[in-house]
Amino acid sequence: MLRLRGSGRGNFAFYITILADFMIKKSTLEHIISEDLSELWNLLSAEEKRIVTDNFTILHYKKGQIIYAEQEEPENLWCLLKGKVKMYKSGVGDRVQILRLYRPVQYFGYRAYFANENYVSSCQAIEPSVLGCISMKIVEELIRHNNDLAFFFIHELSRNLGGSDTKIVNLTQKHIRGRLAEALLLLADNYGLEDDEATLKIYMSREDLANLSNMTTSNAIRTLTTFMSEKLILVDGRRIKILNEPMLRKISKFG
Predict the structure, then answer these.
(1) φ, ψ for residue 230 (rounded to 5)?
(2) What sign has the CA pseudo-torsion 121, 116, 52, 35?
(3) Residue 129 · residue 80 · CB < 8 Å
(4) Sheet strands (E) in the chain
(5) 211: Cα separation from own chain's centroid
(6) Full pLDDT tens readout for the chain, 255 residues
């Protein structure tokens, strides 16, 4: 509770300003949560909404900044509000594999908490991003009293598990052409295209493309060059324009 000290008009006006600013920020935060996180927000009771609003924090991350790292203890449920985030894991010889790409509005960082283990992967902002977070202890308490919320997370976990199963098969059985074609289509489906309806709305480094496709950077560069010579794509620095989507999908499908 805000306590007013002193009896002067100046002090009163000062504290009224602070209180008004606090109410505006709280109102804005509730609007952001209710609009951007509507799928989850609509499952909550009035009291649960108050708890979420009182404990929800919005953070800004720079490009390349780590959100959480492998072996850290999970503490928060994360939600990407704006920007792009990658989940990755370091393997043999410090080789990196990108496991998942997140877009607004998606939730992450909670699996390890439910499994009662430390993080087995890391998350990093691909570009300047805005994220919301709330303590997993609070989320757990909400879940214990809200069956709809529990099924929401069961659905999210189940969908992610199915996607992981499909990705494992694709990365282990497809030729490098099929893997890279699939990666390009994934980027298009996940992040969309520019106004020209052809250029990917994400500018990934060759290394990240390789890490997403389970290949070396040199192989990714060579395959991109081959796709260019076949007039499937057009590459300008990190900008990739898809010229022949049907053929890319065919290459992706048959590997």
Answers:
(1) -90, 5
(2) positive
(3) yes
(4) 57-61, 66-68, 76-82, 85-90, 96-102, 106-108, 122-125, 129-135, 233-236, 239-242
(5) 17
(6) 333 334 444 454 444 343 444 444 555 677 777 777 888 899 999 999 999 999 999 999 999 999 999 999 999 999 999 999 999 998 877 789 999 999 999 999 999 999 999 999 999 999 999 999 999 999 999 999 999 999 999 999 999 888 887 777 777 778 999 999 999 999 999 999 999 999 999 999 999 999 999 999 999 999 999 999 999 999 999 999 999 999 999 999 886
